[in-house]
UniProtKB/TrEMBL annotation:
This is Aspartate carbamoyltransferase. It comes from Primorskyibacter flagellatus. Reversibly catalyzes the transfer of the carbamoyl group from carbamoyl phosphate (CP) to the N(epsilon) atom of ornithine (ORN) to produce L-citrulline. HAMAP family: Asp_carb_tr (MF_00001). The gene is pyrB. Residues 6-148 form the Aspartate/ornithine carbamoyltransferase carbamoyl-P binding domain. It is an enzyme of class 2 (transferase). Gene3D superfamilies: Aspartate/ornithine carbamoyltransferase. Carbamoyl phosphate binds at residues 58-59, 108, 136, 139, 264-265.
Length: 316
């Protein structure tokens, strides 16, 4: 079966079998990454450019490592120091880079839709590393791989996504992915942080943690995205922690073997209690980081295969 996309811009256009295809290949890369020689040759000879217009720790490091482990020439553009600061438009920057013949462009941008726009202007494959509050596809894929490994399946699970749903691209990509794989998705958060019309996505909406967490298999916590807030969305962090911060008492409403996830960066004592985050029997947060490298290796490998294939083969 083929992966019928040139780019990885979001979860929205992916078919369930394409999601499974990335996850299955990522499993192989998990094994490779756990071995001594962590090298593959899927990207040998290819050039990967990482353009991050927004801060990143995990995602940038993980894309960089993924590319290097598969043999690509990897370059990180520091967009803080780039010509963007001198007034160059995103498109001009893209065209300049395009002239250097990259094969894979990994882009993070604060504006929703900016990465899609850029993908239309360049010849190479583009991977969205997070655009505004729109999508963060590799995060949802690494979350899916973490869930599938912990629970043994990725369907008919009950998953709670808690906190700042409105500003979160992680929530959006996860809602789409978990829905496509036929899971029950429960969103929990204050009404001020819940996007209007979200119920149309086939999710259940709760304002109360005890109610929403009832019998879930997975608890996914989100950071308060203060950089995307332009007003008072919560009364205070203390009050927010009291009502929505994940602690042992609230977690007790979930299934006894429920796993706890967080995409990072974490604000301990705001959306999650530090002891829960560090509890190796419940928290899979470090495993999420590990799966991130494997999933990004798989995603770039699959797109690189399409770069080498003819257009007819890609569509077949
Ligand atoms: N690292 C994730 C993102 O880039 C989540 C977060 O920042 O809270 O969206």
């Amino acid at each position: 079966m083929r992966f019928s996309h040139k780019h990885l811009l979001g979860i929205e256009p992916l078919a369930p079998h394409e999601i499974t295809m990335i996850l299955d290949l990522a499993e192989r890369y998990v094994d490779l990454n756990r071995g001594h020689a962590k090298h593959g040759d899927a990207l040998t000879g290819l050039t990967q450019i990482n353009m991050f217009f927004e801060n990143s720790t995990r995602t940038q490091a993980s894309f960089e490592l993924a590319g290097m482990r598969l043999g690509a020439d990897v370059m990180n553009m520091s967009m803080q120091a780039s010509s963007i600061k001198k007034g160059e438009t995103l498109i001009d920057t893209a065209l300049t880079l395009n002239a250097m013949h990259p094969d894979l462009l990994v882009v993070r941008h604060p504006h929703s839709g900016a990465v899609d726009l850029l993908a239309q202007k360049v010849n190479c494959a583009v991977l969205n590393a997070g655009d505004g509050r729109h999508e963060h596809p590799t995060q949802a894929l690494l979350d899916a791989l973490t869930i599938r490994r912990a629970k043994g399946r990725l369907h008919r699970l009950s998953v709670a996504i808690c906190g700042d749903i409105a500003h979160s691209r992680v929530a959006r990509s996860n809602i789409l992915l978990l829905g496509k794989m036929e899971n029950r998705v429960k969103l929990i958060g204050p009404p001020t942080l819940m996007p209007s019309g979200i119920a149309e996505f086939g999710v259940e909406v709760y304002q109360d943690m005890a109610e929403g967490l009832q019998d879930v298999d997975v608890v996914m916590m989100l950071r308060l995205q203060k950089e995307r807030m332009d007003g008072g969305f919560i009364p205070s962090e203390r009050e927010y922690y009291h009502r929505y911060g994940l602690d042992a008492q609230k977690l007790a409403h979930a299934k006894p073997d429920a796993i706890v996830m967080h995409p990072g960066p974490m604000n301990r004592g705001v959306e999650i209690d530090g002891t829960i985050a560090d509890d190796i029997n419940r928290s899979v947060i470090q495993e999420q980081v590990e799966m991130g490298v494997a999933v990004r290796m798989a995603a770039m490998d699959i797109l690189a295969r399409n770069l080498r294939a003819t257009p007819q083969e890609v569509m077949a």
